Amino acid sequence: PALSSGNLQQIEQDVTLEIVNASFAIENQKVLDRLSYSFPKNSITAITGPSGVGKTTLLRALAGLAELQQGVVQLAKTDILQLHEKLRHQKVLFIPQGGDVLPTTVRENLSLSAVNANDEQLEQALLKAQLKVDLDADATLLSGGEKQRIGIARAFLSSAPIVLLDEPTSALDQTNATKIILELSLLAKNQHKTIVMVTHDLALAAYADNSLVLNGPTDSGKSV
User: CATH number of the domain at 17-218, out of 3.40.366.10, 3.40.50.1820, 3.40.50.300, 3.40.50.970?
Assistant: First the structure.
């Protein structure tokens, strides 16, 4: 379905992200119920909880890719659905689960997030994502884990102050996954970003600065 968007093309520089009184149901089954949470800046927040409690739904709502049935996602105190699509994409980078890539080179896939980046900057982003690969390589020929890291590398290139990642390390071994989370933590602190990730891996979630635990519609979420 078409996504709702507004015409607002400018918001304040201090971009905060919060969700207020959010409820959402799938096939009449409520997965979010009156959830409110303010995501701290300069840090990583891990969203955890059992399958089916709405973790990915929440992340998509934060990106403006899913509409809540009740409540609002606020970006810089403004309803995200009031923002123009271009502004929304400038402020929020959403990296979905899996290793989807465009059928072109690694370089052109990375350039989605940094049109003017040079090869050295692209290679540095790949290294932070624990991947060393030729920029001219066909991205579709990479392994699932390598494709996933192409997506993660975009987080180190984007100027967006909000970065949302859905199971970013699901195809990776524990060593590489841990290194990536530590690099993302440095990114959040050094570049003043708000990073939110959904993960089933509680060991990785422990590296996050904050935790939002979803337990289903019986409550409104628990922050740690």
Answer: 3.40.50.300
pLDDT in tens, 159-198: 999 999 999 999 899 999 999 999 999 999 999 999 999 9
Q: Are strands 162-166 and 194-198 parallel, antiparallel or unpaired?
A: parallel
Q: Which of 73, 78, 66, 84 is nearest to 7 (CA)?
A: 84
Domain boundaries, the chain: 17-218
Strand partners, 163: 93, 195
d(Cα 26, Cα 108) in Å, to the nearest integer? Answer: 36
Under a CB-based contact definition with an 8 Å cutoff, are residues 71 and 22 in contact? yes
Cite the beta strand spans of 52-181 per DSSP E: 70-75, 78-79, 92-95, 162-166
Cα–Cα distance, 198 to 113 (Å, whole number): 21
Question: Taking the model in full, what pTM does it have?
Answer: 0.92
- Burial code of 168-198, b = ≥16 C-beta within 10 A, e = fewer? bbbbbeeebbbebbebbbebbeeeebbbbbb
Residue 219: per-residue pLDDT: 46
Contacts of 128 (CB under 8 A, 6+ apart): 153, 156, 180, 183, 187
Identify any residues that bridge with 105 across adjacent strands, giving them in sequence order.
138
